[in-house]
Each structure stands twice: as structure tokens, then as C-alpha cells.
Design brief:
about 25% helix, about 20% strand, globular, Umud Fragment, subunit A, eight-stranded antiparallel β-sheet, about 500 residues, Alpha-Beta Plaits
Length: about 500
């Protein structure tokens, strides 16, 4: 926080210094450039915009676009008309503007509307438009809202494969950029290739700006999945077999997952017989939460019935004297409706036996013989939470302390913890952590398998679905019209 405040002061002073010089040259009092908010008024006056425009600077999203436009107008007023003047002025104003104002050739020519029109070439017009669009989109994508696509069924039926949604960066607070040497509007790779879209030569300290709210239980959250294994899963669902090709991405470029936050810091989480409990109390289940069911029917279930009940995951896996066995991922409500049909003889939720341990369960199948339906109890770490260091706590939290809690030179030797060569007998966590689970509880790779989500890995809150496409349909039938602009709950 101290570093964040320091960076804020430095950028404010640099920007204030720049404005003060511009103001001096334009006949305004230079000291006004250092006063936040108030400095917008002389700035608008100099470029020739009405005073009421100051209102636009308080509207999220609009303020970014208007601010970039005003900076370009300011540069025009001082005969800074080249493409690179404008591009650098809106991309890195805190660096470019102080450099620009120290030059002796800076001269105020008048308000934008009073300046002679400079005819630009078609190439320059297109370059300006593209550069402005890329910078604007990049800033909005980083600071306000970013589009995401649902690629897997782990959140069905709350979120469907083919849902396109916007994720709010501002709800929990926007993260400052970490990896700055990156192709704009990309994530890990350049579109359509396996070429990395970034280089990690420069990694900035990362902070979170103030947000509207904190993460609450049952929020649908987008985050960078922490684990190395999960960050090297291929599009077909398998992991990259050649570990030499595995990439350890910077935090801000790790693979994006979307899950429901079921546990917040200090919560004690437990799953019994597939039901989630938080602090000993039965948790509220999402309305459309799904489980794995085995449906027995006299005849195979046809596609028309599957479509009627929006069942997207099903397959016939056997037949015996009882009938046809179909595996399905459905909600308890749909299960009741299917059970009432005359040709369906049995509908059973496929719950794992308590003694059936999953080898890949978090934190350790050896010490914690759990599975997805019988899990915990497990306490979720909170910033400032202190634990005794022993074999059990290291098995539970050792990986988190070593990889994600901002410690250097961490060593774990048997039941001992060493940080920078010093043995630690009591450890205090440096940040908050969260527990994420998919609403499709029997078909979700989530915190039950890879662990806690660190607070600095949180990207934003799922806001609303703006488009939804059914991959099994064609034409206009491909659009799920009922899901357009649907809020995410």
C-alpha cells in the first residue's frame, strides 16, 4: 500500500508539472495544474471545451475516452501533431507529457476550433483511428470491463458453453499492470498461433486499486488459476505432455477461470454427501447447480427430450435388465421432472463413497483422504491469520506459503519451514485467499483439486451475458435469445 501511494504521488506530481507548464504557456496560473479535479477546468478552457464537460470525467469508461481526447486536443494546441505525439500522449501521458513540456519550442497556438485545419493523408487518418481504438480498448479492457467466453461446462447450468460475458474489473478493484511488454488485446499468445504475445523482461509490482466491494460468498468470479499444471492444459482438455514446453506465466497472464466463490478468508469449508457446508452451516446452493446422475429408462432417451430439458452433457454407457443407463449432468429439479416421466424407471445422483479417495485431491490424498463429495473440513487462509508450523499445517498450506504468499527463499524440510534461511515456527499469511467451485459440481476442475485462489490472482466479477451461442445449432437458432443481456447470479 505504501508503494502504491508513493507511485500515485509521483504520477500526480509528473502530471501536475506537465499541466503547470502548459497552463503557463497558455496564460493560465501554473499552480492550478497540481490541484486534482480543479485542474480539469483550466485544461478544458485551454482546449476550448465547455466547462460542463467536467461531469464526463466522473463517468466510468466515458472519462477514459474523454480524457484521451482532451490530451490529444491539448497537444494540438501546442503544435504537437505527429502520430507519435498523440500515440505516446494517450498511451504513457505521465512519461511523455513531462518530456514534451521541457522543450523550449513549446508555444500555445490557441483553442482547437481556432487552429487551421491540418489535412492528413488517408494513411495517417487510418493510423490515428486504429491507434486510438487500440489504446482505448486496451485501457478499458484493463481498467473497467473485459469480455470473456465460457469454454467448458464447469459452470453449467448457471453459465453455458458458448456464453459471452463481460467481467467487471472495478467491483473488486482494478489490478495495476504487471507484464507491460505485450501485444495489445492479447492474453498468452498471438491470435491463432502458439507464439507468446509477451516478454517478461519487465515485471512491475502489482497493486489493486480501490473497488466497490469485496468478494462475497456465491459471487461468480474470474481469476487467474494459480497452478502450473492447470496453466498448461490444452484446448482439448488434456495437459501438454512435454513438460519442457510448460510455461510458468506471470500472474496477470495465467489462464483465466470462472467459478463461484464458495468460501472466503477464515471460512471453514466442508462437503458432506455432496452438500457444501460453511462454518458448520449448510450453504445455499445455486439455483441451477448440477450433479452427475445415472438415469435408467425403458428405451434410449431421444434428443428431443434432452433439448426440452436443456441437457447438454449426456451419454449412454450401458444396458441391463433394468433398462438403458444414461449418464447426465443435471440439476436436482430436472432430476425430479425426469423421474416423473413414465418411461424412466430410476434417477440416481452418483455420489462418491466417503472412503473412495481421489488421488489428485487438494491438499494431499495421503494425509487428507477426501473426494469431491466428502471434503474437509478445511480453513481458508486470511491475511493476518497465524498458524503453527507442523506436518499437518505444512501439508495443507505449505504450497501456498511457498508459491503464492510473496515470500522469498522458502524451504520446507520435513515438518519445518525456512524463509531466507531462518526457521519459522509460527507463520502469518500476507494476503487473503478464496475457495472456488464450479456449479457443475461433478464436472469441475476447481479448488478441491488445485487449492486456494490468492487475492492477487482475482481478475473481476462476472457481470452479464451479452451473447450466447449454441454450438449444436445453426443459423439464427444458434443464438440463445433468452440469455442475451442476462445478469449473472
Amino acid at each position: 500500500m505504501i508503494i502504491l501511494i508513493g507511485l500515485g504521488i509521483i504520477t500526480h506530481l509528473l502530471f501536475g508539472f506537465s499541466l503547470s507548464k502548459f497552463f503557463d504557456k497558455a496564460g493560465e496560473d501554473g499552480w492550478k495544474g497540481y490541484i486534482p479535479v480543479y485542474n480539469i477546468l483550466p485544461l478544458l478552457k485551454i482546449v476550448g471545451k465547455p466547462t460542463w464537460w467536467i461531469i464526463l470525467f466522473f463517468i466510468p469508461g466515458v472519462n477514459i475516452i474523454v480524457g484521451m481526447g482532451v490530451i490529444i486536443d491539448l497537444l494540438k494546441c501546442f503544435s504537437k501533431n505527429s502520430f507519435w505525439d498523440h500515440f505516446l500522449g494517450i498511451l504513457v501521458p505521465f512519461i511523455y507529457l513531462p518530456i514534451a513540456v521541457v522543450k523550449n519550442d513549446l508555444k500555445y497556438l490557441g483553442k482547437v476550433d481556432e487552429l487551421p485545419i491540418i489535412k492528413k493523408s488517408i494513411r495517417r487518418e487510418w493510423a490515428d483511428a486504429i491507434a486510438f481504438a487500440v489504446v482505448a480498448a486496451s485501457i478499458i479492457r484493463w481498467s473497467i470491463m473485459e469480455p470473456f467466453t465460457i469454454p467448458t461446462p464447469s459452470m453449467e447450468g448457471s453459465l453455458l458453453v458458448g456464453d459471452f460475458l463481460f467481467v467487471s474489473k472495478m467491483h473488486y478493484g482494478t489490478r495495476t499492470p504487471k507484464t507491460i511488454l505485450q501485444v495489445p488485446l492479447t492474453h498468452q499468445k498471438i491470435w491463432g498461433t502458439d507464439i507468446p504475445s509477451y516478454v517478461d523482461w519487465i515485471q512491475l509490482p502489482q497493486f489493486r486499486l480501490p473497488g466497490f466491494t469485496s468478494i462475497k460468498r456465491n459471487d461468480v468470479v474470474v481469476f487467474n488459476v494459480p497452478g502450473l499444471y492447470e496453466n498448461n492444459i490444452l484446448e482439448n482438455g488434456s495437459v501438454e505432455p512435454n513438460k519442457e514446453k510448460w510455461r510458468d506465466y506471470p500472474v496477470d497472464l495465467k489462464t483465466n477461470y470462472i467459478k463461484r466463490c464458495v468460501g472466503v478468508p477464515n471460512d471453514v469449508l466442508e462437503v458432506k454427501n455432496s452438500q457444501l457446508y460453511i462454518n458448520g452451516v449448510e450453504a445455499e446452493n445455486p439455483v441451477d447447480m448440477q450433479y452427475h446422475y445415472v438415469v435408467t429408462s425403458i428405451d434410449p432417451i431421444n434428443n428431443r427430450l434432452l433439448k426440452k430439458f436443456d441437457i447438454s452433457e449426456s451419454y449412454v454407457f450401458g444396458r441391463n435388465e433394468e433398462g438403458v443407463k444414461t449418464s447426465m449432468q443435471i440439476s436436482p429439479e430436472i432430476a425430479k421432472q425426469l423421474e416423473a416421466l413414465p418411461f424412466i424407471t430410476k434417477v440416481e445422483r452418483d455420489i462418491r463413497l466417503e472412503e473412495k479417495v481421489e488421488s489428485n485431491i487438494f491438499p494431499s490424498a495421503d494425509l487428507f483422504p477426501w473426494n469431491a463429495d466428502f471434503y474437509g473440513p478445511l480453513t481458508i487462509p486470511a491475511k493476518g491469520m497465524e498458524i503453527e508450523i507442523n506436518n499437518e499445517t505444512l501439508a495443507t498450506y505449505g504450497k501456498t506459503i511457498r508459491l503464492y504468499d510473496h515470500n522469498d527463499n522458502v524451504e520446507i524440510k520435513e515438518d519445518q519451514l525456512f524463509i531466507n534461511g531462518k526457521q519459522i515456527k509460527k507463520y502469518t499469511f500476507n494476503q487473503n485467499y478464496y475457495f472456488m467451485m464450479g456449479d457443475n459440481r461433478h464436472n469441475s476442475l476447481d479448488s478441491r483439486y488445485w487449492g486456494f485462489v490468492p487475492e492477487d490472482h482475482v481478475v473481476g466479477k462476472g457481470s452479464f451475458i451479452w451473447l450466447s451461442l449454441d454450438q449444436n445449432e445453426s443459423g439464427l437458432s444458434k443464438i440463445r435469445w433468452s440469455r442475451l443481456f442476462k445478469g449473472i447470479e
